[in-house]
């Protein structure tokens, strides 16, 4: 069953990026992250209530809570970097870098979770890494990236923090219900996101948000909530080195919709890179 949850996570994660891009055209990325997190928090705790998992909160040990908090902080940092990159860069360039976190996750899973590294798994990681590099092509001069390659730095940081999120999350939900773990992590992300908004003096921008963009951010938050719930259920039942790669197949959904919605086209080089990333990901999933 964990495979089905992993596939569901990939689909909703792919939709999330497109909806978020629509919601941050004129909205500050930090504000957008904070608003989306509110939606995810409501959604995640609602599911906890429906499934009756809330009673398990009294059984959460100190070590488990520490790892959930750390995972939440890593998630918050990843989101902030990701949506900043998404705001100033093209979807079909930012997303591949974010998804390359698979390579680092495999390394961290080997070190901390002792999941092992076979020759085929090494080959898969190499395909994903090389494919990512091929998709990072020079931006056209008519794009709207007014900050040069600033998007690249944010995208790389997003990938690093996403890798930490997966490993810390795997450890944090080892002894508790995955839905409860997701809800606790989301609460940490919410506190972090709004703390940043307040610290940067952006509270006024929350009152002047475009209603249409607010709607897209709400839908994006709902998609994120569904993706998280599927992801951590799969992570609880399956190996992190297999669940994470399947989740990263969301790149196919994102690239497809970026072409339909934003008319972003792949070059021959980028398409080859995407094919390599996909092949490496599928290979990891079936190992």
How would you describe this structure to a colleague?
The chain has 287 residues and is an all-alpha fold. Helices cover 79% and strands 0% of the residues. The protein is built from 13 helices and no strands. About 3% of the residues have low confidence.
Please give a quick description of this structure:
The protein has helices spanning 2-23, 29-51, 62-88, 91-99, 101-113, 119-135, 150-172, 178-199, 203-206, 211-237, 240-247, 250-262, 268-286. By secondary structure, it is mostly helical.
Helices and strands, in order, run as: HHHHHHHHHHHHH
Radius of gyration using CA atoms only: 18 Å
Distance between the termini: 16 Å
Q: How would you classify the helix and strand content by structural class?
A: mainly alpha
Count of DSSP helices? Answer: 13
User: How many strand segments?
Assistant: 0
User: Please, what is the average pLDDT?
Assistant: 84
Strand content: under 5%
Low-confidence stretches: 139-147
Q: Give a quick account of the main beta sheet: strands, pairing sense, barrel closure.
A: none
Q: So what's the overall shape?
A: globular
* Helix percentage: over 70%
Write the layout of secondary structure elements.
Layout: H1 2-23, H2 29-51, H3 62-88, H4 91-99, H5 101-113, H6 119-135, H7 150-172, H8 178-199, H9 203-206, H10 211-237, H11 240-247, H12 250-262, H13 268-286
Helix pairs in contact: 1-10, 1-11, 1-12, 2-3, 2-8, 2-10, 3-7, 3-8, 4-7, 4-12, 5-7, 5-11, 6-13, 8-10, 11-13
């Amino acid at each position: 069953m964990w495979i089905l949850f992993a596939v569901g996570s990939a689909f909703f994660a792919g939709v999330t990026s497109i909806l978020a891009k629509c919601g941050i055209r004129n909205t500050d990325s930090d504000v957008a992250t904070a608003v989306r997190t509110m939606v995810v928090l409501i959604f995640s705790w609602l599911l906890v209530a429906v499934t009756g998992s809330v009673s398990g909160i009294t059984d959460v040990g100190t070590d488990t809570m520490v790892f959930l908090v750390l995972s939440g902080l890593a998630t918050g940092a990843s989101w902030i970097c990701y949506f900043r990159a998404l705001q100033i860069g093209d979807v079909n360039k930012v997303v591949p870098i974010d998804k390359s976190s698979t390579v680092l996750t495999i390394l961290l899973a080997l070190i901390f979770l002792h999941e092992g590294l076979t020759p085929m798994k090494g080959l898969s990681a190499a395909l994903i890494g090389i494919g990512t590099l091929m998709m990072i092509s020079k931006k056209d001069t008519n794009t709207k990236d007014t900050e040069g390659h600033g998007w690249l730095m944010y995208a790389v940081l997003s990938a690093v923090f996403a890798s930490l999120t997966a490993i810390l999350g795997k450890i944090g939900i080892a002894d508790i219900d995955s839905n409860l773990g997701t809800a606790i992590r989301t609460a940490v992300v919410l506190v972090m996101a709004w703390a940043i908004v307040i610290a940067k003096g952006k509270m006024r921008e929350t009152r002047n948000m475009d209603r249409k963009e607010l709607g897209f951010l709400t839908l994006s938050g709902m998609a994120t909530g569904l993706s998280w719930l599927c992801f951590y259920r799969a992570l609880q039942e399956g190996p992190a080195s297999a669940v994470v790669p399947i989740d990263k197949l969301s790149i196919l959904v994102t690239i497809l919709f970026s072409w339909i919605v934003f008319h972003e086209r792949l070059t021959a080089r980028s398409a080859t890179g995407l094919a390599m990333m996909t092949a490496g990901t599928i290979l990891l999933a079936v190992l």
